[in-house]
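Risk register update: the risk of archive-format incompatibility is retired. Evidence:
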Amino acid sequence: MSDQMESEKARASAWFRELRDQIVTAFEMLEDSHAEGPFADQAPGRFDVTETTRASADGSDAGGGLMSVMRGGRVFEKVGVNVSTVYGELGERAQAAMAARKGFPGMKDDPRFWASGISLVAHMQNPHCPAVHMNTRMFWTPHGWWFGGGSDLNPCLEYDEDTAHFHNVQKAHCDRHDEAHYPRLKAWADEYFYVPHRGRARGVGGIFLDDHNSGDWEADFAFIQDVGKAFLPAFVPLVEKRRVDAFGEAEKDAQLVHRGLYAEYNLVYDRGTKFGLETGHDANAVLMSLPPMAKWV
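Archived output:
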């Protein structure tokens, strides 16, 4: 592996950690600034931060990261912001899946991998506030590297103006790099976050990309940074607007039912969940995306 690629991997890993710090700070500020409306009389929430570690089959170090989870806040009922950098060798099933998806003929001969990224899922106290998911990542094998990720909005009570704002911010950040990015990545998200057994999308979409490698690492890294930078301005204003709205049992019931849909998708279809469990990452970190309460009817 070249010294240049080692430097690029280190820069990507450092960026994901920087983005994690920005988001954790912004979310705790939302907790502190919630002065009126439902739950305003409660104590502001704070993140519990836990180091995660991962070991290879022989017990050697295989990386880890930080799991940051807030539960029972004034604004966030449960939110997890995880960042990790892991490495080692892909197991046989992961090798087969990678070879089939990427067309790499040499995965069995050299199954080494390195992956770094940030993953976030927020479930809100107020049903008028949308749940949200975001992740960005870099993946490397001796056979190739690529970036992936995106973010999508998952309201149980939909507001057209909120959906428009979320998408417009993402489009603006995509357009800085190529005006063809947003329509392609929006369509990809609509396809990826579709729940086949329910015949519907899990939310109102966003953007999604994977296997992104134009051959220009610097350009691709700048783009994946902007995908991450779009998240806070796309999401935070929606929370600030909706967290003060009153709600009753019907709205809370709608939220719990929608969370059931979200849980079904993450356990059955989500590629990141499958990869995390396949490669032996901390199960609590992998499954932090699950809501604290859900309902099936």
